[in-house]
Amino acid sequence: MIHLYIALQNNVPVPKDIPLPLPMPEWFFVVVLVLSFLLHILFVNLMLGGSILALIAQIKGLKNKEYDILAHEIAKTITVNKSIAVVLGIAPLLSINVLYTIYFYSANALTGLMWIAVIPLVTVAFLLTYLHKYTWETLENHKAVHISILALATVIFLFIPFIFLTNINLMLFPEKWAVVKGFVDALFLPNVFPRYLHFILASLAVTGLFIFWYNSRKNYPFEEIYQKFTRYDIQKKGYSLALTASICQFMIGPLVLLTLPSKGMGWNLILIIFSGVAFAVPAMWMMWKRLTGENENIEKDFYKIAMLLGVTVLCMGSGRQIYRANSLEKHRELVQIKTEEFQILKKEAIAKMKAAEAGAASEDMTEAEKGQKVFGQYCASCHKIDEKLVGPPVLEMAKIYKGNIGDLQKWIKNPGKKRPDYPQMPGFESQLDQKQLDQLAEYILN
Amino acid sequence: MFLAISGVLPEICRKKQFMDFPMFHLDWLNNRMLIAIIAIIHVMINHGLAVGFMPLITWLEQKGVKNSGRDQITNLDWDNRIYNMMKVAFIITTTLGAMTGVGIWFSVALVSPTSIGSLIRVFYWAWFIEWLVFVTEVILIMIYFLTWKSSNTSLRAKLLHIRFGWFLSLFSWITMAIIVSILSFMMDPGNWNTHKSLLNGFTNPIYLPQLLFRTPTAMLVAGSFGMLLVTLFFKKETELRLKAVKYVSKWIIFWAPISLLGAVIYYNSIPEAMIANMSTAVGTMDFNKYYDLMKYFILFGISSSLIMAIIGLYKSKWLKSYIVFFPVLMAFAYLGFFERVREFVRKPYVIGGYMYSNLLLEEDYPVYQQFGLLKNATYTTVTEITPENKIEAGRNVFAIACSRCHTTQGVNSVVDVFERMYGIGKPLDINSMASYIPNMHNGRTYMPPFPGTQEESEALAAYIRNIQDTGDVLEGAQSEGVKVSELQNTKAVLENKK
């Protein structure tokens, strides 16, 4: 509780930004970020939704063989969708890095171990999906093992969104950065769990539509694959899922909105979210009509429905960005001020440094005194006057090289190794010029 | 009692400290090691299983069509075995390969946020184009692999499939050619300040040597790995196996000398970069160790594959998978070692002439050295050094200025490097260290200059001695969180503004 109190006082960090201009105007990155992220998340939805459905279908398939076939058909799409999902993730990652450098990287660091764990976790989940896909015949008689492989992959897929949502949530709240200690703390910030449910439901809705489309394709040899199921059966399952998940969004959606911290709220956000809802309603109505209508008409209006829901998704995606922009607006201004302030400070420091250097240079010094300065800079870290530090003491050098400036300087430039119990000395040929070497020798020998 | 102390102590003294980002820190593994592990796995898979492997597989697939009877589309037995080899590469590249690619972004963002943040701003378009090529590559690889079986229905389809294979090979190579430009840019010192542009990535002196090295070496590594798969997937003592071994042997014998040539040219272009980056001195001594070792890696890496290939050509039957395993390992080690050296060349900078390996900008140094590092750090527990908080101040300095490359007690530990200088196991002398630290870059040219005041150097020395005595470690922001400096919070910025 105490640290929370301190945090509320003045614990909002204001770091300086990287002093480089954006390579393009800001709106460009915003557009790329929103669009490429939606594309990426579409395939993530299909990967996650596909895994969940394949798992359920395969379990049902233990009793009804047709479901096992359905599971196999869905499983074949998971590995393809996952590859597209990964590769499409790079563009939004790059764009958010450029646009929100300070915020995104700070959140990454604060949840660091879990953030980097995404890599091995997803790799393992991907390998499991291949293992599952390619052992369908081999493990025919070991269904429990085979289903467990998919179950494990699905559990990992279900966990990964928590890591991303935690990061994307934490980056919006610099005032929380000094409060959280690691991933778990950040996970329990308000809004992560409602957003998670929102995402899972979206995955199911999108996958429902996908299954409808996949099984409606004319060149898909449906009748050769299934014995009992008809296209209509699967199409109906697809729509039912999409519709049910969309209806549930009407309960989770408001929860997400209500748990959003108020700092990023604004009429612009409300407007875009309700526009999204407005597009979803007719699409849902059409699905309902097709589900309850004649069997042979079920394929009608599919593209209209997909298009309307696509607009909904676009609105929701833009809503995310608007909330992000609203929340960080003021803080970004402060960072800007700070970045400029630092440039002024830098000018001061450079002026001060130059003044100090000029002062030092004008002082009258003897050769040996100048040599002492050189010694302090290059040699003192390893050599003391009268005792061994890393290398031998100066007095010993003076004894060895008495009256032999040439050899002393040669040694400094390119040292050999005489004493087995001392470490090798570095050469200073490129760092010291002849003048400095003369001053140094003068100092050492006297 | 123990619980009480261990619960309270972290609260008091383990709060973290950093420049502009809360800093992730792995105190045993070492931060750079995290990046290195991920990056080297990625390069090995990218070169050995994609860039070099796709043309090899396509070539072998084509051989199947050529060697089949007039009435066949291809030799189906042969084709099936080549398909299985492709399946291995397909699964590895689309899982571990793809994820380590993303992993480089993730790990660099954690360890080195300022440098990657700066590089993205300059190379956004290079990476964006790279991304488009990469998307194409992934789509092509899926088409190539997933349509393999269905293309065996007609000769036309099969030939089209093979053409897809060549397309895929080309795109894999282009992906590499783009990323090499960014890698070379980072190795070419000084160019950031003079011409920091996308074009410079391609025109800088290390670009062509690197590409000339990576292309044939990818082919060579792919050949060795391909040989391993041949010995696994082709039945012993069969005609087909002998044929496959001979083809892959020819492939290796063709690419090995070119790889050697590329390696020699690249090897000789490195010192040029080195000379501008760091002078002779100890820096080169440490580098020379790597540089000499490199000769052996080139020698063993290439010759072991070459010997295997010659055996494969003349005594094809001798090649067993367990024999092939060794050359494969050597070929991957050869490739991996070049990556390590590449990393070393950049020191003391992470972006040549602009940003030091501690992520601080060279141009910002006057601020830190005049006014103090801690006063300008966003995340620190100490801003004013007093005799009481000296060690704590030193901990903050260590975290900001040293922790990107050094740990307290783990890999490349700061205690170890000082003990190696002053005597192993001996108590470190605070005064010697404090006077050494501000000057160390003069002797150790791969080290960045110390970015702080004399006082901060003394605090750091006191801290290093303290961790030598206590064995204390430094936890990163990912487990202990951060504390915001009272000079760098909202209030301070607003007050300054007035």
From TrEMBL, chain A:
One of its GO terms (molecular function) is electron transfer activity. The keyword Transcription does not apply. Keywords: Heme, Iron, Membrane, Metal-binding, Transmembrane, Transmembrane helix. SUPFAM superfamilies: Cytochrome c. The chain crosses the membrane at residues 27-56, 84-106, 112-132, 144-164, 196-214, 238-260, 266-285. Pfam families: Cytochrome_CBB3. Residues 366-446 form the Cytochrome c domain. Coiled coil: none annotated. This is Cytochrome C. It comes from Flavobacterium pectinovorum. The lineage of its organism: Bacteria, Pseudomonadati, Bacteroidota, Flavobacteriia, Flavobacteriales.
TrEMBL record, chain B:
The keyword Nucleus does not apply. Residues 389-468 form the Cytochrome c domain. Coiled coil: none annotated. Pfam families: Cytochrome_CBB3. It comes from the Bacteria. Keywords: Heme, Iron, Membrane, Metal-binding, Transmembrane, Transmembrane helix. The keyword Signal does not apply. The chain crosses the membrane at residues 33-60, 88-110, 122-146, 166-187, 207-230, 251-270, 293-314, 321-338. This is Cytochrome bd-I ubiquinol oxidase subunit 1 apoprotein. It comes from Flavobacterium pectinovorum. The lineage of its organism: Bacteria, Pseudomonadati, Bacteroidota, Flavobacteriia, Flavobacteriales.
